[in-house]
Amino acid sequence: MKIASIETIPYEIPYTHPLAFASGSVSTADHVLVRVTTTDGVVGSADAPPRPYTYGETQSSIMETIGSLFSPALVGTSIFDREKIHAVMRRTIHNQVAKGALDIAIWDAIGKTVGQPVHRLLGGYTDSMRVSHMLGFRPAAELVDDAHRMGEDYGITTFKIKVGRRPLSLDIETIRALRGALGDEVELYLDANRGWTANEAAEVLRNTTDCDLTMLEEPCDAKEAMSRRRLVDRSPIPVVADESAPTAGDASRELLNGGCSAICIKTARSGFTEATEILGLCTGLGVDVTMGNQIDTQIGSLATVAFGAAHEATSRRAGELSNFLDMSDDLILDPIAIRDGRISVRETAGVGADIDEEKLAAYRSDR
Amino acid sequence: MKIASIETIPYEIPYTHPLAFASGSVSTADHVLVRVTTTDGVVGSADAPPRPYTYGETQSSIMETIGSLFSPALVGTSIFDREKIHAVMRRTIHNQVAKGALDIAIWDAIGKTVGQPVHRLLGGYTDSMRVSHMLGFRPAAELVDDAHRMGEDYGITTFKIKVGRRPLSLDIETIRALRGALGDEVELYLDANRGWTANEAAEVLRNTTDCDLTMLEEPCDAKEAMSRRRLVDRSPIPVVADESAPTAGDASRELLNGGCSAICIKTARSGFTEATEILGLCTGLGVDVTMGNQIDTQIGSLATVAFGAAHEATSRRAGELSNFLDMSDDLILDPIAIRDGRISVRETAGVGADIDEEKLAAYRSDR
User: Fold this and answer.
1) Could you give the angle at the alpha carbon of B279 between the alpha carbons of A233 and A195, nearest 5°?
2) Catalytic one among A294, A320, A330, A354?
3) pTM score
4) Digit-coded pLDDT (tens) for B123-140
5) pLDDT per residue over A187-223, tens digit each?
6) N or C terminus of chain A: which is more exposed, having fewer CB within 10 Å?
7) ipTM of this complex > 0.90?
8) DSSP conformation class of B317
């Protein structure tokens, strides 16, 4: 059960529908598959999606961080000694996605070694997560169609609207169009990806008080410390920190500083170990959490479901779990099904995202 | 005066005396020389020292960030349009050292284009900076000898003691030995590089009240938000944020959050442009600044001198400018002299650190 080797395999899978948002856009999944093999021959896997516009990482920096900095120090360590493993990873600052994927791959190996699904090892609260679907920068009519289709095809009733554009009327009209067309039963919330100033965000909130929005994520750059504190203090709805609180330390500082009133947890950047720490901080302080999506593959989405379904607090709100629908393919062997607006955990040992080796051979970009 | 090309040249120069500190150690300068050539044929240079244990960057990530993410977007932009250049760099998160070096190289090119020394373009307050010397993890007797030699050879009278070890007595005894041997005239301050907890730092301060220490830098991990706030609130001396406040946004949040009461500015991670923003924040709030060293070469140290001497607030305290003394060589054409404890600005156009092309050819590691 010691780490025998750590592999990083780059691969590229195109999107059928490129996604645009205030901080960037994505047209190809140029990710890294991280594989940990133990001395017993168990293989744990996880997906690492590079997001330079959010965490400063690229496909090659993820491979180098894991291959050159982590792997030499970790080979020979037991997969159960997670505190030791994290002590090694902490020596390198940032590189959250590299660390998150390695942590999840180790948890996958732990689950397989002890013969248990990871969602049970993490808490085992429930067996599925409700799905929230993300509506990107497109004309309001197209977004309404998309939302209707998601409702009809998958039973999804919660939607995150990507905002953060100027003039503000562009987003305000989109919000109104969606609420008008979708009715009162769906849940709508906003993600500005730092696109506005804090004062612009306040203006949008003032102009959408009748739209029953439930949350506002990353209204502005977190460096707007004073204005953001004022926004958070006066906002009628939770202001969620996502990219401004990628680590437990960032989350505690933003919460104490009044920079947010809720925290988005993403397993792709926090793994399961730091996500557990962040969750403890939030439940301890009585602060809401959401399970976010890092434009994840099905492999990444299943990791989010495993963590989210494992705990009461993370399964209370819908998780952002549907971005994979825009990919042309995936490395997963047994594809995810969304039924009645939910994704189920896998009851197999590990995280449950087994890899299709033929697809991996076809999409890997290093051979 | 448009950017025609951006080069990143990796090189390696060994240290004669490896430096050890609480967050890492350095035995070879495996840096990147960044060169910006304009359409007029002006070449601006800067040094990028990778510090994975502080900023998560490696030699290859710096080269990739500048080469793959920044360069394609910046070629064709005027070197004077710094706000546009920074808007491009901001799209990528972190990678502070890559951004800092590119900014300084652009300022060097600006200085050469307009025929002015950059320290004058930045403010022109004075013509030299007082030097602080860093005393690393070695037996107290050796540190005393080192400090004496620095006084005799270079006239240096300000010393930063690297601390952050356990048991705390190790550092407390070192502090006492240095104060006892060096007398009351020298300035001594501490840098724990996050090695202690906030409460351990408080214990060291309580046990060294008679040692006339002037500052305590990075006592603990900034994620200890609540304990650190308590330490800062009660500390009799300024608590300096260094690696916990690498950007203007981090500085404002740490200051508002009570995580520090002074800010260390390092041009290697902030360039001149963001350093100016951080300085404005600090002078506006009435908060002390120090000019820090990122284990810089002479090229990097001259950049620090150019920025530090340019402003009243940054030249008030001694700058950390002597780490280059431990290097076996340097790429600089005209070496730095430390006289009467000071380093002078260069009155040539640009930053003043011209490159010795023969040495560059000898030390570059890409050919």
Assistant:
1) 45
2) A294
3) 0.93
4) 999 999 999 999 989 999
5) 999 999 999 999 999 999 999 999 999 999 999 999 9
6) C
7) no
8) S
Alpha helices in B183-335 (DSSP H): 198-206, 225-234, 248-256, 267-285, 298-310, 312-315
Following CA atoms B226, B230, B235, B241 in sequence, which dihedral angle do they give, to the nearest 10 degrees? Answer: 20
- Nearest alpha carbon to residue A95 among A129, A54, A144: A54
- Residue B18: per-residue pLDDT: 84
pLDDT at B17 exceeding the cut of 90: no
Work out the angle between the directed axes of helices B168-182 and B198-206 (0-180°, nearest 10).
Answer: 40
Q: Give residue ranges of B with CB < 8 Å to any A CB.
A: 23-24, 52-56, 58, 60-61, 64-65, 68-69, 91-95, 221-223, 225-226, 229, 243, 247-250, 252-254, 256-257, 259
List Cα–Cα distances, B40 to A340, B3, B117, B357, in angstroms.
64, 9, 18, 20
Residues of B in contact with A68 (CB under 8 A): 58
Q: Is the pLDDT of residue A24 over 80?
A: no
Instruction: Give helix B267-285 / helix B96-114 axis angle, nearest 10°.
Output: 90
Going by C-alpha positions, the residue among B267, B262, B265, B213 that lies closest to residue B240 is B262
User: C-alpha dihedral over B164, B165, B168, B171, to 10 degrees?
Assistant: -80
Distance between CA atoms of residues B253 and B233, nearest Å: 16
How does the average pLDDT of chain B come out, rounded? Answer: 97
Q: What's the rounded Cα separation, in Å, for the pair A95 and A89?
A: 9
Give how far B77 is from chain A: nearest CA, Å.
Answer: 21
**AA identity, residue B208:** T
Which single residue is written with the structure tokens 């510090």? B51
CA-to-CA distance for A116 and A17, rounded, in angstroms?
Answer: 36
Contact A253 B249 (CB under 8 A): no
Find how far residue A220's CA is from the centre of its chain: 19
On chain A, the residues whose CB falls within 8 A of the CB of B91 are: 23-24, 52-53
- Put simply, the answer to whether B56 touches A93 (Cβ < 8 Å) is yes
The residue type of A307 is F
Residue with tokens 């407390």: B172
Minimal CA separation from A53 to chain B, in Å: 4
Its sign, for the CA torsion B248, B253, B255, B256, is positive
Q: Is B91 in contact with A24 (Cβ distance < 8 A)?
A: yes
Do the Cβ atoms of B86 and B273 come closer than 8 Å? yes
- Find out whether B21 and B136 touch, Cβ atoms under 8 Å: yes
- What residues in A contact B67, CB-CB < 8 Å? none
Quick: pLDDT tens for B154-192. 999 999 999 999 999 999 999 999 999 999 999 999 999
- Distance between CA atoms of residues A42 and A102, nearest Å: 15
Residue A274 falls in the annotated catalytic set: no
User: Which of B124, B143, B121 minimizes the C-alpha distance to B134?
Assistant: B143
Instruction: Identify residue A111 by its one-letter amino acid code.
Output: G
- Please tell me the predicted confidence (pLDDT) of residue A61: 97
Determine which helix (DSSP H) or strand (DSSP E) holds B29, and give its type and residue range: strand B24-38
Q: Is B126 exposed, middle or buried (0-12, 13-18, 19+ CB in 10 A)?
A: middle
Tell me the domains of chain A and their CATH numbers: 3-115 (3.30.390.10), 120-344 (3.20.20.120)
